[in-house]
Write a structure and sequence with these properties.
single chain; 282 residues; three-stranded antiparallel sheet; elongated; alpha+beta; disordered N terminus; six-stranded mixed sheet
Length: 282
């Protein structure tokens, strides 16, 4: 009977210790890579979603789904099915979200300096190039939230580098806010100059103001078919106000901002505006 090397045995012992503390663990290959899919789970036949963005009901005993393979079950960790993985393991990883944690991964000195100024003090684990700041609480994971800063919590794994220094503190809003995307800048399209009509035919400026407000409301209240709704609102505004010259840059900015607040990109807004102009022969 062969026995694992002391280093490989140490990896399994570390995983078992983490599991005993309620921290889901899994083996790592070299360069922090997880082990590949097993035959039973090829093409997600076990129920896992593509790229494992959400966990599926996989009951396979092999470490076949990256972070979703992390477990606190010692029988799985020590099973014969996992033996090869531990023999080949170069390290141990854990699923922070499964442990109820969030890791703020600071990849360089500049990121660490920012964290010291912006984030509450918490448990810190030193890494090869930077630090992991661990907080008690779970949130969506996201990479590149700032230069040199990643968020690793739900549906992510982190290499275990030993216990950190200091107590865990509650996940603060300032960390949660790092993944909130700011609205894209508004990039309206200029309205062409009046084409042959002299004085504005509208009785009062309030007529235009009501038209813009109605278009904004129509876009804002769209529950589905947002692309079509935005195009229809642009078409309605341009058909009524596009040739007389009363539309201003401020009006188009309001319409584009309403569309972008519903998730439309600046390019989609520009395309919808251009298509409306074409439809009206403008």
């Amino acid at each position: 009977m062969t026995h694992p090397s002391p280093i490989r045995g140490e990896h399994l012992s570390t995983a078992l210790a983490l599991a005993a503390d309620g921290v889901p663990a899994l083996p790592l290959r070299a360069k922090k890579a997880t082990f590949g899919n097993c035959k039973a789970c090829e093409k997600n036949v076990c129920g896992g979603r593509p790229n494992m963005k959400t966990p599926g009901p996989c009951t396979c005993p092999l470490p076949c789904h990256g972070w979703a393979a992390a477990t606190t079950d010692p029988d799985v960790l020590t099973s014969r099915a996992w033996a090869r993985a531990w023999r080949e393991a170069a390290g141990v990883a854990y699923h922070p979200g499964g442990a109820g944690w969030t890791a703020v991964d600071l990849d360089n000195a500049a990121a660490i300096a920012w964290a010291r100024e912006a984030l509450p003090v918490t448990q810190i684990v030193r890494t090869t190039r930077g630090e992991h700041w661990l907080y008690q609480g779970v949130m969506p994971s996201s990479n590149g939230v700032r230069p040199g800063v990643d968020i690793k919590s739900a549906m992510q794994y982190v290499r275990w580098l030993g216990p950190g220094a200091g107590p865990l503190t509650a996940l603060p809003d300032v960390v949660r806010d790092l993944i909130v995307r700011q609205p894209a800048p508004v990039r309206p399209v200029a309205v062409p100059a009046p084409t042959g009509i002299g004085a504005c035919p509208h009785r009062t400026p309030a007529y235009l103001a009501r038209g813009i407000a109605m278009a904004e409301q129509r876009i804002t209240e769209a529950a589905s078919a947002v692309h079509a709704t935005v195009y229809g609102a642009f078409l309605a505004v341009l058909s009524t106000h596009g040739r007389c010259g009363c539309l201003t840059q401020a009006h188009t900015e309001r319409l584009f901002a309403a569309a972008q607040a519903k998730g439309e990109s600046p390019r989609h807004c520009a395309d919808a505006w251009a298509n409306a102009l074409t439809r009206l022969g403008m």
